[in-house]
Amino acid sequence: MVSGTGTNMEVLLNAMADPDFGANPVMVLSNRPGIPALEKAANRGIRVVCIDHRHYLDNRLDFDAAIDAALRQARVSVVCLAGFMRILGFQFVSAWEGRILNIHPSLLPEFPGLDTHRRVIETGKTFSGCTVHAVTPELDAGPILGQAAVPVLPGDTPTCLAARVNRAEHRLYPAVLRRFLNKRRETPTRLTTP
């Protein structure tokens, strides 16, 4: 699920092109029509769906229900939020909990929410980074599945730091998704006593 240029989406699609990765992209869904991510996905032959959030400003439940219906129709088993810039509601997240991942541009639990790079610089941090976490109803508070740190350099601007963090995201997200998928496929070990 995307809302912008789709750089993390592209990295995930590239990773899934490896037959040993263990997943196939079945759909790219956006809340914004005409964004580069949808064009990039369509050019790869991947089904694209746009559910414009502006049509649901008076009813967020209907927005979440439309997304849920699209995911179920496409038989999605795992959802990767890759720059999806809408908060999903409690009912939706609860229904998909354990099957939704998100990438966030900070070392959670520090700096949840928006405008992270500016806040990191303003507080004088010497390191920032990114986090892949499981999505839960509380914003940016789900179990951490992986993190990558990057230095905050003297003279950094939010734009410079964002570019450095973005490169770390491109390495981290596919690695965490691969590990997550492998764990989902593992069958639990059953111990028996003689």
Q: Any overview of this molecule?
A:
With 194 residues, the protein is α/β, with parallel strands linked by helices. The chain contains six helices and six strands; from the N terminus they run αβαβαβαβαββα. The strands form two sheets. The protein has a four-stranded mixed beta sheet, covered by helices on one side. Helix 2 links the parallel strand 1 and strand 2. The N and C termini lie far apart (49 Å).
Largest sheet: 4 strands, mixed
Uncertain spans, ≥5 residues at pLDDT below 50? 187-194
Number of strands: 6
Order of helices and strands: HEHEHEHEHEEH
Give the strand line-up of the largest sheet: 3-4-5-6
Mean pLDDT: 93
Rg from Cα: 18 Å
How many H/I helices? 6
Distance between the terminal alpha carbons, to the nearest Å? 49 Å
Q: What is the percent of helical residues?
A: 25-40%
**Class computed from helices, strands and strand pairing:** alpha/beta
Q: Give the CA-based shape.
A: globular
Strand content: 15-25%
What descriptive keywords fit this protein?
194 residues, alpha/beta, four-stranded mixed beta sheet, 6 strands, 38% helix, disordered C terminus
TL;DR?
The chain has 194 residues and is α/β, with parallel strands linked by helices.
Question: How are the SSEs ordered, and which strands pair?
Answer:
Blueprint: H1 7-16, E1 28-30, H2 36-43, E2 48-50, H3 60-73, E3 79-81, H4 90-96, E4 100-104, H5 116-122, E5 127-134, E6 144-151, H6 158-185
Parallel strand pairs: 1-2, 3-4
Antiparallel strand pairs: 4-5, 5-6
Helix pairs in contact: 1-6, 5-6
